[in-house]
Amino acid sequence: MMRKIAGRPAVITGAASGIGRSLAQRLSRLGSPVVIADVDAVGLGETAASLRGPVLSRVLDVRDAEDVGRFAAEVRAWLDLPLAAVFNNAGVATSTTVLNSVPEDDSWLFDINYWGVVNGTRAFLPQLVEQNYGVVVNTSSVYGLLGIPKNSAYCAAKFAVRGFTDSLRQELRGTGVSAVTVHPGGIKTNIVRARSCAARASPPSPCTPAASRPTSSATPASTPIPTGRAARWSSSPRTSTRSRSPPRTGRPRSSTAASSGARRGSWSDRTPTCSTRSRASPRRTTSA
């Protein structure tokens, strides 16, 4: 798949670290213009600085469907080439028994791991269908294939991603657009760290004057789920993942501002406040 989209634009959420960062770096080395997003502004800035080619960086909370829609519009305006791939990769994890689970924690996890995938898919799908080309890649987990003790909420969300993407795949037949589910195994990334980072829930528009930018409450971080050689790609045997290749005309505009050297759409200078949550049932992350 990476060879098929090499040199073509891709969007990656959860790109501040882990597999999201690795995906961005790999595609950038292959000549692809890369759009990266994450709620962790500091990590996102580090990822952007490590990329070679054109990059659009955007602080984004994938739970906010309206802001994800605005993000998709910004990406469309920035690109001069058809969008090749959307990687809905942002995710978090908790670990506790059902008996000791906290409903608020489960809702937080589900909002990111499932609804974040749905929001990203809905925001970019019209563009992909319109151009009759592209692929949506949704990150599930091996925990989306079987139930694991002390991971009921995580498994439920990843099973939901799998079901959502399987249904979407059938709906997209004949459109030129593919949908793929990835089921990674356990790989050590930031998702195994028991920490929640706070950042702006609604990042300001890059065109909004500083004096009029709204403030907002802190929210937990969206951390990418890892993938690797053990990843399982789920697709229908009767549905090809090949997409129609568009003509390569034009080049994406550079996201680097000539006056300041800042990357367009990037708020990587905003440092999130990190703290460990204190709850009746302490949050602990898992490795898959």
Label this structure with key terms:
KR_dom; 288 residues; disordered C terminus; globular; Rossmann fold; alpha/beta; 30% helix; SDR_fam; 17% strand; oxidoreductase activity; 3-stranded antiparallel β-sheet
If you had to describe this structure to a student in words, what would you say it looks like?
With 288 residues, the chain is an alpha/beta fold. It has a single domain, classed as Rossmann fold (3-Layer(aba) Sandwich). 30% of the residues lie in helices and 17% in strands. It is built from 7 helices and 12 strands. The strands form 3 sheets. It has a 7-stranded mixed beta sheet with strand order 3-2-1-4-6-7-11, with helices on both faces. Strands 9-8-12 form a 3-stranded antiparallel beta sheet, with no helix packed on it. Strands 5-10 form a two-stranded antiparallel sheet. Helix 4 packs parallel to helix 6. It is globular. The two termini are 22 Å apart. The C terminus is likely disordered.
Superfamily (CATH H level) name: NAD(P)-binding Rossmann-like Domain
Largest sheet: 7 strands, mixed
Indicate the CATH topology: Rossmann fold
The number of strands is 12
Strand content: 15-25%
The CATH architecture name reads 3-Layer(aba) Sandwich
Radius of gyration over C-alpha positions, nearest whole angstrom: 18 Å
Number of helices: 7
Q: Which strand order spans the largest sheet, edge to edge or round the barrel? A: 3-2-1-4-6-7-11
Classify the helix fraction into a percent range. 25-40%
